[in-house]
From TrEMBL:
Main location: membrane
Pfam entry (one): GT87
Recorded topology in the membrane: Multi-pass membrane protein
UniProt region (Disordered), positions on chain: 1-27, 474-498
Transmembrane segments: 47-67, 148-169, 181-212, 218-244, 256-276, 317-336, 382-400, 420-439
Location of the protein in the cell: Cell membrane
Phylogenetic placement of the source organism: Bacteria, Bacillati, Actinomycetota, Actinomycetes, Kitasatosporales
Protein name, per record: DUF2029 domain-containing protein
GO CC entries: plasma membrane
Keyword Cell membrane among UniProt keywords: yes
Source organism per UniProt: Streptomyces lunaelactis
Keyword Transmembrane part of the UniProt annotation: yes
Compositionally biased tracts (Polar residues): 1-10
Length: 498
């Protein structure tokens, strides 16, 4: 836990203002009066502080995303398959209300579903979220009314998750709350927020990152375990954390986090695992047996060659590629001139999983948006990536319209392959600039004021005990340069924001 003195030092410094450091943010701020003035930070303790502003903006953007789904809510979900694609307003939520037995009162994992699916194919905590929403759905009347109300109830719950994400990201980087505007204003966030239930895991992961930044190691582990019980990807964050704790010698902290994650995951999963083993394992068997699907470069390969790929082969190749990516991240972590920031590595490992996976659903971008805001809080790079993701969002629906419409009106396979390539290139571009920041820490905007790792918790300012390569033996004349600029936090005149 940070000491009282350390906490007061953080609080005494003014917030970093992106409009004073980021040209894109400065230009965009002209819409609301221009960049913040010299003394604007003094008002941040009032009711309308940065955290509340960001939360309100995030909720407003979420509401705009709901409005974008209105053509489907009113009629397109229920009148044929292609209309929901041409209007780009598809959502799994109303369809699975009927397709996964919630309309009939079936209990996930315990009751067998009609058809080939057999059981609900979601992790346990997401299944509980879906079930609670069905209990809150008290609408009577036609099935259409029930599906509409089920989507609306879920949207309300997911809006709460959105507010939690915005608040947690705003508070994770000390002195950088405005970086969370990247999350709040992300167009792909608003467009994909109510497609599925991913925001539950994203909110738990964002809360875990906040806890780690405050030195609450056990709370971080528990929240990561709960997030993994809602979606598989959050467990990947333990890999970068292992490497960082290895480099800093923080073994006890890592063990506490890992045990907390394992314990929380078991508490949620064990009852279902014991009482309904067949239903519990459906998520894991479904993930293994799933064919090459939308959004992956594997789909481009199969469409271009005209030859289907065996599921076992794709699983093997995807696993090998992910392991190679993780090996590269490990080498980068242990040999970088300065220890990378936790958020940088968290973004890289989740991005590697997304790029190598055999499926990329459009809502998976939600996994990366909070991590991207913490890893690379620069508007130009973020917006380039978001533009690619919005193009993919439109591309997949136009492709589905083409495949489901009798007249093939929409995007043909060749066009969809371009959309997939844009998504992959945009993600890889953002990975590249994050890697550049790690290799050239003087270019990392978060560290320009002398910070080490504002979201690093016990890692922030810790000494290295295990380093590989040239970083282990820096030239004598460069020893101070590798530490980066140091700023006396108690001296306001040295703050670059003044």
């Amino acid at each position: 836990m940070p000491s009282a003195k350390e906490t007061s030092v953080y609080q005494d410094r003014p917030d970093v203002r992106p409009t004073r450091q980021d040209p894109i943010a400065a230009s965009g701020s002209e819409l609301i009066g221009g960049p913040a003035g010299r003394f604007a930070w003094r008002g941040s303790s009032g009711w309308l502080n940065p955290v509340r502003v960001i939360a309100l903006v995030a909720i407003g953007m979420f509401a705009l995303g709901m409005v974008q789904k209105m053509p489907c809510y009113n009629w397109a979900w229920f009148r044929g398959t292609s209309s929901q694609y041409t209007h780009a307003c598809y959502s799994d939520i109303p369809h699975l209300y009927l397709g996964r037995g919630f309309s009939e009162g079936l209990i996930p994992y315990f009751d067998r579903l009609p058809g080939d699916m057999e059981y609900l194919e979601y992790p346990v905590l997401t299944g509980l979220f879906m079930q609670v929403a069905s209990w809150l759905d008290l609408a009577g009347g036609s099935m259409q009314n029930q599906e509409q109300m089920y989507w609306m109830v879920n949207a309300g719950l997911l809006m709460i998750c959105t507010a939690i994400i915005a608040v947690c990201v705003a508070r994770t980087h000390r002195r950088r709350p405005w970086d969370a505007l990247l999350v709040a204003l992300a167009p792909a966030f608003a467009l994909t927020a109510t497609i599925n239930w991913d925001l539950l895991a994203v909110a738990l992961t964002a809360a875990a990152m906040l806890m780690w930044s405050r030195g609450r190691v056990l709370a971080f582990g528990i929240l990561i375990g709960l997030a993994t019980a809602a979606k598989l990807y959050p467990v990947l964050l333990l890999g970068p954390l292992l490497l960082l704790c290895w480099r800093a010698g923080k073994w006890r902290e890592f063990a506490t986090a890992a045990l907390g994650a394992a314990g929380a995951w078991l508490v949620v999963n064990l009852p279902v695992m014991l009482l309904a083993p067949e239903g519990w394992k459906k998520f894991y068997t479904f993930s293994q047996e799933r064919q090459v699907d939308f959004g992956s470069f594997w789909l481009i390969i199969t469409q271009r060659t005209g030859e289907p790929m065996e599921v076992e082969s794709v699983n093997t190749y995807a696993t090998l590629l992910m392991l190679l990516a993780c090996a590269g991240i490990a080498a980068l972590t242990l040999s970088a001139p300065r220890r990378p920031r936790f958020a940088q590595l968290a973004f890289l490992v989740v991005a590697a999983f997304i790029v190598t996976n055999k499926v990329y659903s459009p809502q998976y971008v939600l996994w990366l948006i909070p991590l991207a805001a913490l890893a690379r809080p620069r508007w130009r790079d973020f917006l380039i990536w978001q533009a690619c993701e919005v193009m993919y969002f439109l591309g997949i629906w136009m492709y589905l319209a083409y495949t489901t419409s009798p007249k093939h009106q929409g995007l043909p396979p060749e066009g969809y392959q371009v959309a997939i390539a844009l998504h992959l290139l945009g993600t890889l571009y953002l990975c590249a600039v994050v890697v550049r920041d790690i290799l050239m820490p003087e270019r990392d905007g978060v560290r320009k004021d002398g910070s080490d790792d504002p979201s690093g918790g016990v890692l922030d300012g810790a000494d290295d005990v295990f380093v590989l390569g040239q970083a282990a033996h820096p030239p004598r004349h460069a020893a101070h340069a590798l530490e980066g600029p140091r700023v006396e936090w108690g001296t306001r005149s040295q703050d670059p924001g003044n």
